[in-house]
Fold:
Amino acid sequence: MVTPTIQRRRLGNALRRAREAAGKNQDEAAEVIDSAGSKISRLELGQSGIRLTDLKLLLDFYGVPPEEAEPLRELARAGRQRGRWTGYRNVVPDWFRQYLDLEADAAEIRWYQSEHPRHPPDRALHPGDHRRR
Structure:
């Protein structure tokens, strides 16, 4: 099951691409839905959901054909659902709930280690170096 966080991000990316393809800026798009440019930014970053009426106005403004608009409407509907961590608002901060949603939907998780000059990753150590730590 894909979480609402991922659905909003997918929709946001599609909206940004459509806006840029139409040669419009965020302020012009914001005027169409009678809001501030910051709302368009939040929508394109997947930080907030969008009402279907606002989505229709934006898609029409961007010149998105109907056959491409329907999957975007489905993403908008799915992005408005409550995530599974919503009930834990008092305990789990918003940034961490978003991380949990992203981790749950990740196809691959990579691990990175800091490479401080005085402490190289273990795999870079020569035999016997671990004794000097």
